[in-house]
Amino acid sequence: MAPTQKIYTALGLMSGTSLDGIDVAWLQTDGHHRVITGPAETFAYAPGFINTLRKTLGQKNPHTPAMKKIERQMTWLHAKAVKKFCLKNNILLQNIDVIGFHGQTIFHAPQHFITLQIGDGALLARETQCRVVNQFRGDDVKAGGHGAPLVPVFHAALAHPLPKPLAVVNVGGVSNITWLAHENTLAACDCGPGNALINDWLHSHNAGAFDDKGTFAARGSIDWAHVHRFLADDFFARPAPKSLDRDHFKTYMPHHLDLADGAATLTAMTAAAIARTLQHFGRKPQKLLVSGGGRHNTTLMRWLASLLHMPVMSVDHVGWNGDALEAQAFAYLAVRRLLNLPISFPSTTGVQKPMCGGLVHTFNL
Q1: Which residue ranges form the domains of the chain, and what is each CATH number?
Q2: Is 65 exposed, middle or buried (0-12, 13-18, 19+ CB in 10 A)?
Q3: What is the pLDDT of residues 75-105, one digit of tens each?
Q4: Predicted TM-score (pTM) of this structure
C-alpha cells in the first residue's frame, strides 16, 4: 500500500498586472492532484497606491532607493492583507506551512533573460512568522524559458476529473491559455492582452478602473482595421510557448477613437488574440473555461463565443473560484517548491527541461 502523501496548508498571494489589489487564498494540497480550496478574498489597493505601482511598470532597476521603498510598502500591504484574512476566517498563522508570494511584475523580457517581480520575501516571512516562497519565475527565465505562464500545472490538478480536451483561459492583465488535450498532456502560452489595455484606456479617460460588465465596449463600434493591424504583430506568428510583458501591445492603443469605440476595439483585440492562439493547438476543445476578471466582462464573453463557435463559460460553472484561481495557484506552486517538484515545463514556458522554481524564506523568532 502506497504511503499517504502529506497534506500542506498554504496561502497564496497575487498582485496582478491589472493593479487592482491583493488576492489572498487558502489551500490544502499534496502538491500533486489532491487540492482542497477554501476561503479567498481581494484586498483592494488605495487609488494613490495604484498610481504609485503604475509608475513602477517598465522599470528595469528594482534596487533604487525609490523602488525599494515601494517594494517595502507593497510587502507591508501584503502582510496586512494576510493578517486581516486570517483573522476574518479564523485561520491561525502557525498552522500555515507556507505562503506563496508572487509579488508585482514590473518588467518581463525573457528574450533578454530578465523577469522582475518586486516583493520582499524575507520581510513578509518576518511580518507573518511563516515560511514564504517568492521569485517563482526567475529560474525558468535564467534557463531559457519564458517564465510564464506558471498557473497551467495548477489548472491540470484542478481539471484532473474533467473531460478532455479542455482549454482554460485566464483573462487577467495579460491573457494566457492552458491546453489539456488528454490526461497526461499539458501545453500553455500567453495569448495577448487581457484587461490591462482596457483598464488603462478607461483610466486615461477618467472613466473608472475597469469596464464593468463590458458596458462601454457594448456601446461602441469596433475598428476592425485596427484589430487586423494588431493581429499582424509578430507575436502572433511565433510558435507556442511564448509570453508577454504587460505593455507589449501598448503601441496599439486606439488613440484615434472615442471612449466607447476604443473600449469596443480593445475588447475585440483581446477576444481575437485568444481565438488566434487556440488555432495553435489544432483540435477544438469541448469547452472554453474563462478565469480572471475578464470573465465578468459579458461583452468579452459574448464575443469570444461568437468568434469560437463553442461553449464559453466561467470556471465558476465547474466549481472553481474564478476570482481566486491565480492566488490559489501560487499557494499550490509554493507547496511544490517545498517538495522540489517542477512548476514549469517545455510545453508551458519553453524551458528545456521541467523546472522547480522559487526562493524559500524562513523566519527567525
Answers
A1: 8-146+330-342+352-361 (3.30.420.40), 152-318 (3.30.420.40)
A2: exposed
A3: 999 999 999 999 999 999 999 999 999 999 9
A4: 0.90
